[in-house]
Amino acid sequence: MTPLPPIPDGWTWAPLGEIADVVGGVTKDTKKQSDPKLPLVPYLRVANVQRGRIDVTSVAEIRVPEATVRRLQLQPGDVLLNEGGDRDKLGRGWVWEGQIPNCIHQNHVFRARIRNKILHPKLLAWFTNECAKGWFEKHGKQTTNLASISLSMIKQLPVPIPPVAEQKRLLNLLEDHLSRLDSVLATCAVTTLRLARLRQAELNAKFGLTDDSIALGDLLVGIQAGRSVGGSAPPAGENEWGIVKVSAMTWGEFRPQENKAIPESLVNPNFEIMPGDLLVSRANTSEYVGAPVLVGETRRRLLLSDKSLRLMPRNDVDPEWLWRALQAPSARRQISAAATGTKDSMRNISQKLLMGIRLPRVEPDAQRWLAKAYAERDSELKRIERAAKAGALRVEALRRAVLNAAYSGALNDKIEELAGV
């Protein structure tokens, strides 16, 4: 058994199952959902149980026997913990505050109801969300797609129990420190959102559709489609050939590492990707189908796939201007409307429909000027984005430091002393 970390004098360790009633939730019975005699009640799923909050913006309902409602009905102060999903979601959760009457929980969410007020629920939730992450990763089980942890195992989670007076002190300090950190984190999130809106406004102003428009096909000398190579494989090594995946063209920049290795016998060098290529994702989610990327410096021996298209602009068309014009909201709306497919998770756009997308008619000199002006603005926006991201990472590091200090007995009222993390 792994030795437990040291805790201050007067604290004790106790298994979760000894200090709380821990139960699993309801498993959905499809047959019962059509029985009107059974009560219809709200129930929480994994998506509702977030790290540090309960999200009740979208709560499903389920029909279950009245005895099940009585057994699983949540009470204010219950700590909810996820038992399944991605590995980093194990143990994720927060305290139920009675937001919805008669609410229960599904089988992938555990409920811990602390006995005799031996520990404040928030102190348990903060501990499981941060300090116990390693324990959950170690004791969880991983299948092909999902991780899980059993009820019997989660009852064995060792929990530190401070004296009552220390619990009150910690609760006050943590609520103060974490609320300030949350405020900074919210500012970083708002900044990132505003930057995204600014970028869209810049794209629309410089590359949006005007009254004088032209079809994409009239700006090209051709489109080249890649070929399909079935199966899955790890990324290609330095001297291997690879074929790009859809994710290489999804995020606004070309990602050459998103590829899979293929045998040299299947290679056609005519489909090799080169610096300066303008690529488009032919198939993707509804949000990213038709997403364009302009290839910069890239590795050699990388091929187009059947889900990627290489656009070949005319000599008088600036590739960078065309890349940005295809990113503009007016072009994105046309591409999304033209894409076909029954599921949003995988839409397709044909070469014919793509060539029909209307773009502003702009003279070559103006194309180059607009592309340069946008690049300068985009560089400025990226600098601010990096600062916001760095700030958010700093806040998360401080949060970890604050919580680890709390459960080691080292937390005081000066968060500045933890700023060296």
TrEMBL record:
Protein name as catalogued: Restriction endonuclease subunit S
InterPro entries recorded: Restrct_endonuc_typeI_TRD, Restrct_endonuc_typeI_TRD_sf, Type-I_RE_S_subunit
Lineage: Bacteria, Bacillati, Actinomycetota, Actinomycetes, Pseudonocardiales
Recorded family membership: Belongs to the type-I restriction system S methylase family.
Type I restriction modification DNA specificity domain location: 8-179
Subunit structure and binding partners: The methyltransferase is composed of M and S polypeptides.
Keywords attached to this entry: DNA-binding, Endonuclease, Hydrolase, Nuclease, Restriction system
Broadest EC class assigned to this enzyme: hydrolase
Highest rank taxon of the organism: Bacteria
Enzyme Commission number(s): 3.1.21.-
Transmembrane segments: none
GO molecular function: endonuclease activity; hydrolase activity
